[in-house]
Amino acid sequence: MTHDRTDRPSPQTVALDCLHAGIDAARPRHVVRRTLSRDGTTLTVADETFDLDDFSRVVVLGGGNAAGEMAASLEAVLGERLTDGIVVTDSPAETTRIDVRPGDHPLPSERNRDATGDILAAARDADAETLVLAPISGGGSALLSSPAEGISLDSFRTVTDGLLRSGADIHDINTVRRALSSVKDGGLARAAAPARVVGLVVSDVIGDDPSVVASGPTYPSRATPADAKRVLEENLDSVPADIETALRERESTPTGNDDPDAFAHVTNRVIADNWTALDAAADRARDLGYSPLVLSSRVGGEAAEVGRTHAAIGVECAATGNPLDPPAVLLSGGETTVTVDGDGTGGPNQEFSLAATRELDRPGIVVASIDTDGLDGSTDAAGAIADHETIPPEARDDARAALRNHDVYPFLAAHDALVETGETGTNVNDLRAVVVSRDRRTK
């Protein structure tokens, strides 16, 4: 259904509808059913088929924000052909054959470590007649977490927290996580060898590199312990002694990533990514009578600066019709960061939206940004939505102070600008919409 100009919904409604459409398209129950199907003993995964009679066991092992919903969907597809499984997630789902273990995010915890230990033990029980389906998604770097031998959980948490606060690039952060873990960097696949392993990846990283999503449990990278040491030196003032020792030892000990036998029977498939959400959001914009344009799926950098840039593009669109004539929805994805230097509460998507208000000088433009997992930063909000009226003139100084102190959550809550979705059961990175409803010829 399309809308005439006279009955188009408000730009706020359009923005939220587009964001929710993106989330819904990336939900595991939809993604798994688009990718996997079973006809009797034949299991089809994308363009690959498996005769389930060739395997004595079919198990599900994995972790991440989407792993619970993926496990439930895999149960529905496999039915009685599924033997058992274990996944760890912060978004539980009801299952009967798969043990869905609760975990914590964004920092690894004791229950994450214990669940991951059980997952690795189950992987080691696999043999050449076992088919392992491994649901892997964003959030798995924390949830699917097992520090390497000699590294304490406290040290692992300290380094993870320090890197997240430093504003380091996610690829660099995961380079360190891979070097310090027994499950990442292909560790899950190595534990399961010689089983047939199929990684089912819901990507939350720019470029969809499977070695970066959840730090690559089923996919080895070319990163080395020396690379991890460089990242730590560039971003942290100090490193726990046990981590320094472990990195020195791992520099002289091969991980097995170069062993062709370790990954000879491993396939990885990205079954959903940021484009899954962007395409659905664009379709929803068209349905609502707006012209969509995807600016990029690879937007990174400091959230506040990116927010101001997106708002400026929206203002340009309203004023000149560039890059396209209104009514329009400008979309982007990727992952911005916040370099935290205090104890404020908020997240990148909230800072994006609040900073955008500094550029919004006219009605008819709405900026909204969310993390598709429903949890922006360490808050219970997915992100925020704003227009030129969100921040009244008398509150502008307070808005700037909130951005400086990285304490935007309470400010946005007070101005009814938070977007709350609850945990979504998926994670395909950030999703942003700039809605421009005003025709430039009527300004």
UniProtKB/TrEMBL annotation:
<dbReference type="Pfam" id="PF13660">
    <property type="entry name" value="DUF4147"/>
</dbReference>
<dbReference type="Pfam" id="PF05161">
    <property type="entry name" value="MOFRL"/>
</dbReference>
<dbReference type="InterPro" id="IPR007835">
    <property type="entry name" value="MOFRL"/>
</dbReference>
<dbReference type="InterPro" id="IPR039760">
    <property type="entry name" value="MOFRL_protein"/>
</dbReference>
<feature type="domain" description="MOFRL">
    <location>
        <begin position="329"/>
        <end position="430"/>
    </location>
</feature>
<protein>
    <submittedName>
        <fullName>Glycerate 2-kinase</fullName>
    </submittedName>
</protein>
<keyword id="KW-0418">Kinase</keyword>
<dbReference type="InterPro" id="IPR025286">
    <property type="entry name" value="MOFRL_assoc_dom"/>
</dbReference>
<feature type="domain" description="MOFRL-associated">
    <location>
        <begin position="15"/>
        <end position="247"/>
    </location>
</feature>
<dbReference type="GO" id="GO:0005737">
    <property type="term" value="C:cytoplasm"/>
</dbReference>
<dbReference type="InterPro" id="IPR037035">
    <property type="entry name" value="GK-like_C_sf"/>
</dbReference>
<keyword id="KW-0808">Transferase</keyword>
<keyword id="KW-0670">Pyruvate</keyword>
<dbReference type="InterPro" id="IPR038614">
    <property type="entry name" value="GK_N_sf"/>
</dbReference>
<dbReference type="GO" id="GO:0008887">
    <property type="term" value="F:glycerate kinase activity"/>
</dbReference>
